[in-house]
Amino acid sequence: MNIRKKFEEIVRIYFPKWKNWRSWKVRRTTEGSECKESSKTIVFNRNELEKDAVDVDLLFIHEITHAVTQDGHNQKFLNRLKKAKTTASQLHRSELENLIEKEIEMVSKIEKWPDYLKDTIRDIVTIDNPDISWKELVEASLSTP
Ligand SMILES: [Zn+2]
C-alpha cells in the first residue's frame, strides 16, 4: 500500500478543511501506530496496514484526528471523530461509520477512568516498557487485533 496516497485520500475525504497536511510525514514502523506531533510524523504499524481496508481507514482517521486536534484523546479529539463518522454516514460507508462509533465509545470510556486507575495500569504495564505514555498505552490497547 502507498501510505502517502492513503493519507492524502483520507485527508481529502474526511478532513477537507485541514490546511497543514502537507507539512506532515507518514512512515511505517514495527512499533505501535502513533501521531508524533513534535516531528509532524504519523507512524503506522506494519501489521495494522495489512488489515481489512475499513480497519486501515479507521486507523488513518484516528491518527489524522490526533494530528488535527493535538493533545491526546480529549473532547476536541472525540468531536472531530464524530465529524468523520458523519462523513462516513453521508458516503453510505456504514461499516466504517459503526467502527468509528465504537472507537468513540471505547476512547471516551477509557479516558473517563479515574487517575488512580490510569496510574495503576501504567505502573503495571511500564515494568517492561518504562517510557510508554498514557496516550501510547491507549493507542496500543485500541489496536490489539
Ligand atoms: Zn489515539
Q: What is this structure, in a nutshell?
A:
With 145 residues, the protein is mainly alpha-helical.
List keywords for this structure.
single chain; 145 residues; Zincin-like; binds zinc ion
Describe the structure.
The chain has 145 residues and is mainly alpha-helical. The protein has one domain (3-111): Zincin-like. 57% of the residues lie in helices and 9% in strands. Helix 2 crosses helix 4. The two termini are 19 Å apart. Bound molecules: zinc ion. The site of zinc ion (ZN) has 4 residues, from helix 2.
Whole-number average pLDDT?
92
Specify the CATH architecture.
2-Layer Sandwich
- Helix proportion range: 55-70%
Ligands: zinc ion
Question: How many separate structural domains?
Answer: 1
Q: What's the Cα radius of gyration?
A: 15 Å
Shape: globular
- What fraction strand? 5-15%
CATH class call:
Alpha Beta
Look up the CATH topology. Answer: Zincin-like
**Sheet/helix structural class:** mainly alpha
Q: How far from one another are the termini? A: 19 Å
With helices defined by DSSP (H or I, 4 residues minimum), what is the helix count? 6
Sheet with the most strands, sense and barrel status: 3 strands, mixed
Uncertain runs are: none
Q: Give the CATH H-level superfamily.
A: Metalloproteases ("zincins"), catalytic domain
